[in-house]
Amino acid sequence: MEQAKRVCQIIKLKPEFAEEYKRLHANVWPGVLAALGRHHISDYSINHYPPLQLLIATFKYTGNDYEKDMKAIGEDKETRKWWEITDPMQESFNDGATGSGKEIPWWMDVDEVFRFEGGPSTLRR
C-alpha cells in the first residue's frame, strides 16, 4: 500500500474574525466534508496560533492524482460557497493570491522537516 501524502499549509487569520472562524469550523457544512472525503483527504485539522494570527492546516492525501483532486474540490459548488465566507477572514502569504481555488494557491505549503511515527522498535533501550 502506498503511503499517504502528508500536507501542511499556513495562512494568516485576520484577528477581527478569529471567533467567527472558529464558530464556523465547529460546524463545517456536510457538503464540504463530503467533497474532501470524495477526493481522498483525511485526518484534516486546522490549528490557530493567536500570537501570530497563524492558521496551520494538516491533512493526509491518499489518492493517485493530487492536482486533479485539488482542482475537483475547487470546482465543488458548496466548497466554493464556503470559501466565499472564509477567504475574506484570511490573508495569504503567497504573492498575488486572490482566493481559494485559483491559479495562485491561497494557503501556503510548508515543508516537513521532521517526522516520527513511533512503533515497537523505538521503545528498545
Structure keywords:
4 helices; 30% helix; alpha+beta; globular; 5-stranded antiparallel β-sheet
How would you sum up this structure, described in words?
Helix content is 30%, strand content 24%. It is an alpha+beta fold and 125 residues long. Strands 1, 2, 3, 4 and 5 form a 5-stranded antiparallel β-sheet that branches. The relative contact order is 0.22.
Set out the fold topology:
Blueprint: E1 5-13, H1 18-25, H2 30-38, E2 41-49, E3 54-61, H3 66-75, H4 77-86, E4 90-91, E5 108-109
Antiparallel strand pairs: 1-3, 1-4, 1-5, 2-3
Determine Rg (CA atoms, Å): 16 Å
**What string, H for helix and E for strand, traces the elements in order?**
EHHEEHHEE
N-to-C CA distance: 30 Å
* Uncertain segments: none
Strand content: 15-25%
Which shape, going by the Cα principal axes? globular
Helix content: 25-40%
Alpha plus pi helix count: 4
Quote the average pLDDT.
94
Q: What is the gist of this entry?
A:
By secondary structure, the chain is of the alpha+beta class. It has 4 helices and 5 strands, in the order βααββααββ.
